[in-house]
Specification:
Number of strands: 3
Strand order of the largest sheet: 1-2-3
Low-confidence stretches: none
Order of helices and strands: EEEHH
Strand content: 25-35%
Shape: globular
Mean pLDDT: 95
Number of helices: 2
Largest sheet: 3 strands, antiparallel
Number of domains: 1
Radius of gyration: 12 Å
Structural class: alpha+beta
């Protein structure tokens, strides 16, 4: 998830069950919260594959535009 008018640095929120983490987009890494180890690995892998798209969506959200959906990890 990304929120309109969210604070810097560029990041997104990842949820898994009752857990939530905040993931910085560049460089990719956790900056808050916590996920189970397996979920953490999958989130980081997905973010690395889609880093450019995530940064573009961050800019769109900052401009109050809807983000473009990004494909899930297959």
């Amino acid at each position: 998830m990304m929120y309109y008018k969210d604070h810097a640095p560029p990041h997104f929120h990842a949820e898994y069950g009752d857990s939530e983490a905040v993931v910085q987009i560049s460089p990719i890494g956790f900056i808050g919260g916590q996920l189970p180890p397996r979920a953490s690995s999958l989130v980081l892998e997905w973010a690395a594959l889609h880093q450019d798209e995530l940064l573009a969506d961050w800019r769109r959200c900052r401009d109050r535009l809807a983000p473009v959906p990004i494909a899930p990890l297959e």
